[in-house]
Every structure is written in C-alpha cells, then in structure tokens.
Design a protein that fits this description.
This protein has three domains: 107 residues, Structural Genomics Hypothetical 15.5 Kd Protein In mrcA-pckA Intergenic Region, Chain A (Roll); 83 residues, 2-Layer Sandwich (Pseudouridine synthase); 153 residues, Pseudouridine synthase (2-Layer Sandwich). The protein has seven helices and 16 strands. Strand 13 and strand 14 form a beta hairpin. Helix 1 crosses helix 2. It is globular, with a radius of gyration of 24 Å.
Length: 368
C-alpha cells in the first residue's frame, strides 16, 4: 500500500478552553503534523505525527478532525471507540490530550462500494457508435459519483443512455466508461468507452500523449503570445483540498498555451495539455499569476488587475454574475478510433455563459 501523500501539514483553528476565571476562552492554535495517507480497496490509513515542539492542549478527536478530510467529530469518536485509532501503539479515549511526539495511527475500513445507478438525464451527445461516444459536458455536472455527489452525474446519465453498455475498467471507483475527466465547473468534450478493449486503447493514447486536446480560457493578466508552463503538481501542504506547484514531490505537469486575443488586463488563451493532472490548467496559470477568470478556488473570482471602481467594477460584477464559474472550456478533442484506426476530431461551441462574457469583454474592454 503506497502513500498517496506525505508532507508536513499546518492548520489554524479556534477552540474553547476553560480559563483561570472559570469562563471559557476562545484560543487560536496553530497546529502542525506530519500527515501520511495510504489507501487500498478495503481501507484507508492515516498516520499523524505530532512535532516534538508542538504544544497542543487539544483532545485526540479534535486533533484528528482538524487534519483528516471529510472527517466529522462523530465519525472520529466512533472510530476511536471501535478501536480503529491507536496513539503510540495503544488505544486511547477521545478525550485524550495530545502530547508532543505522539504518533496517531488510524485505519478506517471502507464500506462496500456503491454502484452507480442509471438516471434519465439530458446529455449532449456529439458522436456515438457501437464502441464509444463523445459527450459535451455542461458546467456544473460532476463526471462520476463520489463523496457528496452520488446522483445526477454524467455517469448516471450515460448508464441510462447506453442501457448500462459501458466499459467496467473503473467499476470499483464508480467510473464505468470514463477514460478522462473534467472538473465539475469546466465544460466541454469527453470521450467515453463502451467496452474494455476500447477503454484500454483510449487510455493508452492518453498516457502516450497521442490525444489532441485544446481548451479555451479567459485569464487575468498579460500573458505572452505563447508559452509553456512546467512544474510538478501535488496537494498543497497548506490546504489539501487544492493543488499547487511544488518544488519537491508532486507529479510532472506540462501546459502549453497560445494567446488568441488581448483585452484590458485580460486575455483569451488556447491551451494544450501535455499531461493531465488534477486542476492542471488552473494551477499552472495561477502559478504564473494568470488566474482563470471567475475561478473561486484559485483566485480568479475578483478583479485581479486594474482599477476596481465605478463603471469598471459594475461591469465585472455583471460578468461574474453571468459566469458563475471558471472561464474554462474543453473545446476540441481528437484521437485515433481504437476500432477503425482513423483519426477523428471534434469541436464544441462555447457555452452561453462563457460566450456572453467573452462578447462583453470584446465590446467593453479595450484591447491592448
């Protein structure tokens, strides 16, 4: 079982402590821990190591909840009670107060995997034959079921549309037919496999970088006419819910871009991926300070450059209201058909919200 990640993790939180006066006092604590996560089909393991210089004065259940994603106080307390948590190799109560140098080992059994169910959902099918299909995913739709999104996903709709005739290469992870993914708030083209052989051949094309993918994005700043961004991507040590360009660790990522149009402190880019890491485009562009317009996770959802007053402020507020997501669209997709061995390519029009904001920029933002 290999670690998913391993790095020092920092967390700030408030907690209440009984003061000398007998009243509860609100205290800000800066916590640090070496966090290791491992995962297999049957369980998820975590190891938390409290630094020797860390003074916590915090209960075991509260400490674990602060560092483990999707962990609630009730779930953690139950895990401690059921014997899935050890402190320095032995069980402790949830009320145990953490000490410098403590080592917490957590082993959580996974529930039986859920099975994605067919749901009647309107889908924009761009192309379909007996072996695969290409779908134009709308922004706001999650690709496959996962924690917090068990229905209404693209997979649910595909199962209904194909009468469950999809590849099972990722059956255990609720991704039948899914060869590659798009973020929930990103719109655009995806190829879906209907059988295992086609799935394997398409996946190989992606791994060998033989698939042609271009994205359009509106970004803040003044990017050059063209460029390449390189930098390993992994989970942020400060916030594991987001990704970051890392000096150490992470996975190799390469993004190519070409400037299509320039506006006032903004630009329209065409982007090609050489690799396919989680949030790659958004993370790489943020690293270069070319924040994707409207992106709330990576800092593009407010006026980054230029004045933010008067009519200009009102104009951008209107744009943010129109495009309530990142301005990122998977526009073209080309690959060799695994059965016919012919190269096929597809193009998708910009969705209405993206096109509307782009037109407003052309009309109101003077080109540089």
């Amino acid at each position: 079982m290999n670690p998913i990640f391993q790095f020092p993790y920092k967390k700030k939180l408030f907690f209440f402590k009984m003061g000398k006066s007998g009243k509860k006092e609100r205290i800000l604590v800066c916590l640090e821990a070496m966090l290791i996560e491992k995962e297999d089909a049957k369980k998820t393991e975590y190891i938390l190591e409290v630094p020797s210089g860390q003074s916590t004065d915090i209960r075991l259940d509260r400490y674990i909840t602060s560092f483990v994603q999707n962990a609630t106080r009730n779930k953690v307390q139950k895990a401690i009670k059921d014997g899935y948590v050890l402190v320095n190799g032995k069980p402790e109560k949830a009320s145990y107060v953490m000490q410098p140098g403590d080592k917490i080992e957590i082993s959580l059994p996974k529930p039986p995997p859920q099975k994605a169910k067919p749901e009647k959902i309107d889908l924009d099918i761009v192309y379909e034959d007996d072996d695969l299909l290409v779908v134009n995913k709308p922004a706001g739709m999650v690709v496959h079921p996962a924690y917090g999104n068990w229905s209404g996903t693209l997979v649910n709709g595909l199962l209904y549309h194909t009468q469950q005739n999809l590849s099972n290469a990722d059956e255990e992870t609720l991704r039948p037919g899914i060869v590659h993914r798009l973020d929930k708030a990103t719109s655009g083209l995806l190829v879906v496999a209907k059988n295992e052989l086609v799935h394997q051949k398409l996946a190989k094309q992606f791994s060998k970088k033989k698939v042609k993918r271009t994205y359009w994005a509106i970004v803040w700043g003044y990017p050059p006419e063209q460029g390449t961004i390189e930098g390993n991507i992994g989970r942020s040590p400060q916030d594991r819910k987001i990704m970051k360009v890392l000096n150490d660790g992470g996975k190799k990522a390469v993004t190519h871009f070409k400037r299509l149009e320039m506006f006032d402190h903004l630009a329209l880019l065409e982007i090609q991926l050489e690799t396919g890491r989680t949030h790659q485009i958004r993370v790489h562009l943020r690293h270069e300070k070319f924040y994707v317009f409207g992106d709330p996770t990576y800092g593009g959802d407010y006026v980054r450059y230029g004045p933010n007053t008067g009519s200009r402020k009102a104009m951008f507020n209107n744009m943010f209201e129109t495009l309530q997501r990142q301005a990122l669209h998977a526009k073209t997709l080309g690959f060799i058909h695994p059965v016919t061995e012919e190269f096929i390519e597809f193009d998708s029009p910009l969705p209405e919200d993206f096109a509307s904001v782009l037109q407003k920029m052309k009309n109101n933002c003077k080109s540089a």
